[in-house]
């Protein structure tokens, strides 16, 4: 419009091409995606907090659940998770270095750093798979009562945990895995335990120096250990043997713990996995020189944002699942 | 990226010469924080597990604060929010922070209420 008086400053503000947030479209959308994903993860973690506060006196102690390190026997709480955290932070660092090299248009450096990032991501996903497998396989075994409470076995003198194999009797009985094809179609067993309930109960009764540890946390923050008489009453309520953890039964304690573990670390692991895939795509684009021709490495920066976000989420998962 | 990097962390206490150096500096800082967390998690000092603040163990508060510190440095230096415009930073940070605080408040209070119902109700849950 010719009649409108325009001064120079107004032109630069309203004339288009203005970026109030100073970020390109792609980067902005990556940030918005990250925000929505952050809210999803917070939803999960807060739901975990909800269930935990609801059963605050029954919740398993993470230090007693995740005690294994590959290739080593013994009790090493947290070391492996700490290692995983370090790996993820390290791969975050190589990612920033790749972004930094991208700004300087150093193709070869970007290639090296992207490669290291992918390796870090793979180590992390592998570690998580191992962690899952260990968790699913279980450690000592336990029995579950009618009320769905878990009873674990400890040595009366030393207070050390006892595995089912250490005291269960071998009875001359045949235990058949219950298949869905046998009897009622919706009842089936996912796995057959190494001992039947009878064998565990008989073994327990035969050994007077075994007592039961319940889910209940005491004043000291330890699980309550019953005396022998109470233990004998409790074991009479047992309805099944539980080995390892799945979505329905969990030998470590409250079943919701296992559910949230699978759900949250699974969702995070899926993010890491897709992050690795996206990183690989970008890695090949860098090798092919796509961004060199485009004149900038903003794409590396964008996947970088995603990758750091995955690291950021892990920091929270680590705290709320393993530390607190 | 056309604009320069801001090279100081800890409110200017530590100033790095280049962006690469800053990245390594932040890595060292994050590793130290993580080791402190792991150390506290394994040793569980009695003084911290037996004193409470707002209904939670002091140790857990320390973990949560250290986590937020780590999150800050990951977002500010790795995701280079430090180099972004203030407006973008505020949009990205304060929106989720507000929503998440609300969610935490409402769900944890509700959970605590249900806990008291289970505890003081006339129904036994362990039969």
Question: Can you characterise this structure?
Answer:
The complex is a heterodimer of chains A (324) and B (127). With 324 residues, chain A is α+β, with helices and mostly antiparallel strands. Chain A is built from 11 helices and 5 strands; from the N terminus they run αααααββααββαβααα. Chain A has helices at residues 8-14, 25-54, 62-65, 79-103, 107-137, 164-167, 197-206, 228-235, 255-288, 290-294, 298-323; strands at residues 142-145, 150-155, 210-217, 223-225, 238-242. In chain A, strands 4-3-2-1-5 form a 5-stranded antiparallel sheet, with helices on one face. In chain A, a hairpin with a 5-residue loop joins β3 and β4 (223-225). In chain A, α5 packs antiparallel against α9. Chain B has helices at residues 19-43, 46-49, 58-78, 86-120; strands spanning 8-9, 14-15, 52-53, 56-57. By secondary structure, chain B is mainly alpha-helical. Chain B has 4 helices and 4 strands. In chain B, α1 (19-43) runs antiparallel to α3 (58-78). The longest helix of chain B has 35 residues, at 86-120. The model of chain B has no long low-confidence stretch (mean pLDDT 87). At the A-B interface, α2, α4 and α11 of A face α1, α3 and α4 of B.
């Amino acid at each position: 419009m010719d009649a409108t008086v325009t001064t120079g400053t107004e032109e630069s503000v309203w004339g288009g091409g203005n970026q109030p947030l100073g970020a390109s479209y792609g980067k902005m959308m990556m940030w918005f995606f990250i925000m929505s994903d952050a809210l999803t993860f917070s939803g999960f973690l807060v739901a975990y907090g909800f269930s935990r506060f609801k059963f605050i006196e029954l919740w398993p102690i993470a230090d007693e659940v995740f005690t294994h390190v590959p290739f080593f026997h013994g009790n090493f709480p947290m070391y492996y998770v700490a290692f995983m955290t370090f790996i993820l932070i390290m791969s975050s660092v190589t990612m920033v270095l790749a972004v930094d090299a991208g700004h300087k248009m150093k193709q070869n450096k970007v290639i090296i750093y992207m490669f290291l990032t992918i390796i870090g991501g793979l180590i992390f996903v592998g570690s998580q798979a191992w962690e899952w497998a260990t968790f699913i396989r279980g450690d000592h075994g336990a029995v579950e009562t009618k009320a769905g409470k878990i009873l674990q076995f400890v040595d009366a003198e030393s207070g050390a945990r006892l595995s089912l194999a250490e005291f269960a009797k071998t009875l001359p009985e045949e235990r058949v895995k219950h298949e869905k094809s046998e009897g009622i179609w919706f009842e089936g067993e996912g796995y057959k335990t190494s001992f039947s309930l009878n064998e565990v109960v008989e073994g327990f009764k035969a050994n007077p120096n075994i007592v039961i540890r319940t889910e209940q946390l005491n004043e000291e923050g330890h699980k309550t250990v019953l005396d022998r008489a109470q233990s004998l009453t409790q074991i009479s309520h047992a309805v099944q043997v539980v080995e390892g953890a799945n979505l329905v039964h969990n030998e470590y304690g409250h079943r919701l713990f296992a559910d949230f573990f699978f759900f949250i670390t699974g969702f995070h692991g899926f993010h890491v996995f897709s992050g690795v895939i996206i990183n690989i795509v970008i890695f090949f684009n860098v090798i092919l020189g796509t961004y060199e021709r485009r004149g900038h490495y903003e794409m590396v920066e964008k996947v970088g944002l995603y990758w750091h976000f995955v690291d950021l989420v892990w920091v929270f998962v680590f705290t709320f699942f393993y530390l607190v | 990226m056309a604009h320069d990097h801001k090279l100081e962390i800890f409110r200017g206490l530590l100033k790095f010469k280049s962006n690469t150096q800053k990245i390594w500096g932040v890595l060292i800082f994050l590793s130290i924080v993580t080791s402190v967390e792991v150390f506290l998690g394994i040793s569980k000092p009695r003084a911290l597990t037996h004193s409470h603040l707002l209904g939670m163990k002091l140790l857990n508060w320390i973990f949560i604060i250290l986590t937020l510190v780590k999150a800050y440095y990951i977002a500010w230096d790795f995701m280079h929010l430090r180099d972004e415009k203030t407006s973008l930073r505020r949009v990205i940070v304060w929106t989720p922070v507000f929503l998440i605080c609300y969610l935490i408040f409402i769900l944890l209070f509700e959970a605590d209420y249900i806990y008291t119902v289970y505890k003081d109700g006339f129904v036994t849950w362990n039969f």
